[in-house]
Design goal:
With 400 residues, the protein is an alpha/beta fold. It has two domains: 216 residues, Glycogen Phosphorylase B (Rossmann fold); 164 residues, Rossmann fold (3-Layer(aba) Sandwich). It contains 15 helices and 13 strands. Helix 9 packs across helix 13.
Length: 400
């Protein structure tokens, strides 16, 4: 565990250490001048992470606190807790004991379960939105990645709580709103800069940079590109997102419909490979029915792609109208137009550049300082550097 050197000491809790959650946390640890201790679990079985991560992480935090005390440390070993929504912060505080529970805490909402589009709702699924609500109540500060995410969470809190059979809590949304703010997730442009400038092939290329799950609606994407292939248009398709077994049949059908137009269909093996794939594409497409920010589309835009996003969810607050479409036919029309007349590279570069770590890390440092200062802890300054070491503990003891 790091020895305090006058910097703020931050305990980060991330039960789903992968994808954008990992990228944002690791980037903040590099760019916000603090001593970071990261408690993490592998990014799988997200429902079980929400159910049980607090138990594992509280035990590990207590062990680290005991180590701190045995080494002569006075007071709590951290000045701030920074938690993702995959950990139940209220449970964590209750299990970790009074000293750790007293440390001010921020919960970062990459997403929220109140508006997640469950295909098969069961009563036991209610635990997940309730975890989000109790975590928000237990936090000193709630940060949401978009205004849309915050507004949806607040608007759905009271209707959800009315589903209780009795003893309906009141004023919960108002209490959460009073301590909430919007702060976008940053991205690291370095791998994308290394792949620049965009190098285009002979045919226009459309990239799909998303996880292959139902909330990203891959069926809508394949319907659009398959229809354009049926018209005889000459273009390429690159699939760059994480795939799952349940999507195998869809991938096979797409390969059959697209033929040699499908030039890539696998998750890239490295950030460099991913950046090169984005830089080789002309157009990036989202058909998401659930998106709270969309870091993949921001990265694609920065790499030079022309983004096409649905006119819904969080997208309207990020992308000007020229990059949005209203319905499936409009997506097909825009794709057809850009295949026939390729868009200029980096049309949305300025949109994406607003979300780099260089631009946003100072705002995170300011939030961290403010929350800790309000609790009268010893931290007195802030900076943006990355000189301090990071201690990361994968708390999955069995390594699986």
């Amino acid at each position: 565990m790091a020895v305090s050197s006058g910097r703020m000491r931050i305990l980060a809790l991330e039960p789903y250490y992968g994808g954008s959650h990992r990228a944002v946390l690791d980037g903040l640890a590099r760019t916000v001048d603090a001593e970071w201790t990261q408690l993490t679990l592998p990014a799988r079985k997200w429902k079980w992470r929400m159910r049980g991560a607090a138990i594992t992480m509280a035990a590990e935090a207590c062990a680290l606190a005991d180590e701190h005390a045995a080494g002569g440390g006075e007071g709590p070993p951290w000045d701030l807790v920074f938690a993702s929504t995959f950990v139940n912060l209220a449970e964590f505080k209750g299990l970790a004991g009074a000293d750790i529970a007293a440390i001010p805490a921020i919960v970062y909402f990459h997403e929220n379960q109140l508006v997640y589009p469950n295909r098969h709702e069961a009563e036991w699924d209610f635990q997940f939105p309730l975890t989000n609500i109790t975590s928000a109540l237990a936090a000193d500060r709630c940060l949401f990645n978009t205004r849309w995410n915050l507004e949806q969470f607040l608007s759905q809190t009271a209707p959800f709580l009315k589903r209780f059979p009795d003893h309906h809590p009141s004023g919960v949304a108002e209490r959460i709103a009073a301590k909430s703010a919007v702060l976008a997730p940053p991205f690291d442009p370095a791998p994308l800069d290394a792949a620049m400038p965009p190098v285009r092939g002979a045919r226009p290329r459309i990239v799909w940079p998303h996880r292959w799950e139902h909330d990203k609606d891959p069926e809508a994407f394949f319907a659009a590109v398959s229809g354009l292939a049926g018209e005889g248009l000459d273009f390429e398709v690159a699939i760059a997102g994480q795939a799952f077994r349940e999507t195998a049949d869809m991938m096979q059908a797409a390969a059959a419909a697209l033929g040699d137009r499908l030039v890539h269909a696998a998750e890239p093996s490295s950030r460099a490979e991913y950046a090169a794939l984005l830089a080789s594409a002309d157009i990036a497409v989202s058909t998401a029915v659930n998106e709270f920010f969309g870091l993949a589309m921001i990265e694609a835009s920065y790499a030079g792609c022309f983004p096409l996003v649905p006119d819904r969810l969080a997208y309207p607050e990020i992308y000007p109208a020229e990059f949005r479409y209203g319905h499936a036919d409009a997506l097909v029309a825009k794709l057809r137009s850009h295949i026939l007349e390729r868009p200029e590279p980096c049309a949305a570069g300025d949109v994406a550049a607003a979300f780099t770590f260089e631009r946003l890390a100072p705002a995170y440092a300011e939030e961290f300082e403010r929350v800790a200062a309000h609790a009268a802890l010893r931290y007195r300054g802030r900076g943006v550097s990355g000189a301090a070491p990071v201690v990361r503990v994968d708390v999955s003891k069995e390594g699986s």
